[in-house]
Design goal:
By secondary structure, this protein is an alpha+beta fold. Helix content is 44%, strand content 14%. The strands form four sheets. Strands 3-7-4-8-2-1-6-5 form an eight-stranded mixed β-sheet. Strands 9-10 form a two-stranded antiparallel ribbon. It starts with a strand and ends with a helix.
Length: 458
């Protein structure tokens, strides 16, 4: 017989019990569905496939390295066992009591199988587990179908547990990107992004409202005329790019290892170092590109210049896709010049100077018809490209790298870049003459912009 102190509750036609198990008991008593049954058909499947690499790469490390480790309750399906309930306190007889199974049931993780697998991994090799891990306790929600037996109708109980699994996962909503950045106390990029907004003069929060007039904290997209320079999610992504120099890349190894690294809070000294580097990088970027200090509501409009009496601009670096490109090119320029934020700022500013001369106006080549396109239903209305955007952004990054002198191309390579650019133009420009000739004229202006940057840099 198995006996557990438990709380009893019910919802719908389910009865469930909240019990406490040690890690040792969980590892021994609760099974993965794959350990109990073979899914012969899709309709027999009662659990998703376990991602073993995720378990070892993330969850085992979380349990073994974090003193503040904590898991939410496992939801466990009990098959058979003839469960019985005995209240132990007359005042709360409906809630508190003993849950007994007359014969050993079969438990499997209905929700939390990856957490279960991580616990089993550590219990199988205690040398990698924290001290006294086996006696730590976990809340387990045992879901039973009262009066069921193990030899009942398999089809019916499998169908019910499959439906319950679907309900637990389909209606669970993960936290949004903004909330993750605001709340995360382990991800160093989230920590320094919040500090940048709190302390850096360009982004600083205006007390007592606790809102940055530079950073939009809800939603990633920015609208024309919005007063914010960027969004919180985009700023986080920019900061990650700007901080990921060669030294940090070497420390992390594979890109997938970054995800694991961000689950563990660095030492305060390392956080301070990251922030100092980030603040210095932004200081240098703002000095090298004074346009970034222009009121954003004047720099973000798709309205063409000839129908824009207020003289507003459509600056690529004021839109999220352009800000990601800006951060990538800035990081590459700093790496190319070996500019170190721990040294004098002047070399960093000089390394970033090409960004000031690069063409950023979306209504001018090379961006017009590549990133900014006319609406098919209203040709007089312009919008950011959505179709083939990934390919267009890949070419846009190659263009910026070439324009800023990062990738000097020979004649053949430049021809390939021009060809890729022309093939991606959303619609041939509305020329007075021949469309290919118009595109050639646009490319000549791109070459002139690059020549200006190269001559200044030389």
């Amino acid at each position: 017989m198995q006996l557990y102190p438990a709380m009893r509750a019910s919802m719908g036609d389910w009865t469930y019990y909240i019990v406490r198990m040690t890690m040792r008991e969980v590892a021994h008593e609760v099974q993965l569905a794959s350990e109990l049954w073979t899914d012969a058909t899709l309709s027999d499947a009662i659990q998703r496939t376990v991602d073993a690499s995720r378990v070892k790469r993330e969850l085992v490390k979380f349990l073994s390295r974090r003193d503040d480790r904590f898991f939410s309750s496992l939801v466990v399906a009990a098959i058979g066992g003839n469960p019985s309930w005995k209240p132990v306190d007359s005042r709360f007889e409906e809630a508190f009591g003993e849950l007994a199974f007359q014969v050993d049931p079969r438990y499997y993780a209905l929700d939390g199988q990856h957490r279960l697998k991580a616990i089993k991994e550590l219990m199988a090799d205690p040398s990698g587990a924290p001290p006294r891990f086996a006696s730590e306790q976990l809340s387990v929600i045992v879901v039973v179908r009262e009066h069921q037996t193990a030899d009942g109708d398999d089809r019916l109980w499998k169908q019910r547990y499959r439906r319950l699994f679907s309900s637990l996962n389909r209606y669970a909503k993960p936290t949004d990107g903004d909330t993750n950045i605001i709340m995360d106390e382990d991800d160093v990029f989230a920590i320094v992004t919040r500090r940048l907004i709190a302390d850096h003069p360009f982004f600083q929060v205006s007390a007592p409202e606790k809102k940055s007039f530079r950073v939009q904290t809800r939603g990633k997209n920015l609208k024309a005329g919005a007063p914010h320079f960027t969004s919180l999610q985009t700023l986080y992504e920019m900061n990650q790019i700007l901080l990921t120099d060669a030294e940090m890349q070497a420390r992390w190894g594979q890109p997938r290892d970054v995800k694991v690294y961000l689950r563990f809070r660095p030492e305060e000294e390392e956080i301070d170092t990251c922030y100092r580097k980030l603040a210095q990088t932004w200081d240098s970027l703002l000095e090298a590109m004074p346009d970034l200090r222009t009121p954003p509501e004047r720099m973000r409009t798709h309205q063409p210049p000839d129908s824009n009496p207020d003289g507003f601009s459509d600056h690529l670096a004021f839109w999220p896709i352009g800000q990601s490109l800006l951060a990538k090119i800035a990081r590459s320029l700093l790496d190319s010049a070996a500019a170190d934020p721990d040294e004098e700022p002047a070399p960093m500013v000089e390394a970033l100077r090409p960004l000031a001369d690069a063409p950023w106006d979306l209504h001018q080549p090379p961006w017009r018809y590549l990133l900014l396109v006319p609406d098919e239903t209203k040709p007089s209305v312009w919008r950011m490209r959505s179709e083939s955007r990934k390919k267009a952004l890949e070419v846009a990054e190659r263009l910026l790298r070439w324009l800023c002198g990062l990738d000097p191309l020979n004649e053949e390579e430049e021809g390939e870049l021009q060809k890729d650019w022309r093939n991606l133009l959303y619609r041939s420009p509305e020329p007075t003459g021949d469309a290919p000739e118009e595109a050639s004229q646009m490319w000549e202006r791109v070459e002139a912009a690059r020549q200006k940057i190269v001559v200044r840099g030389g």
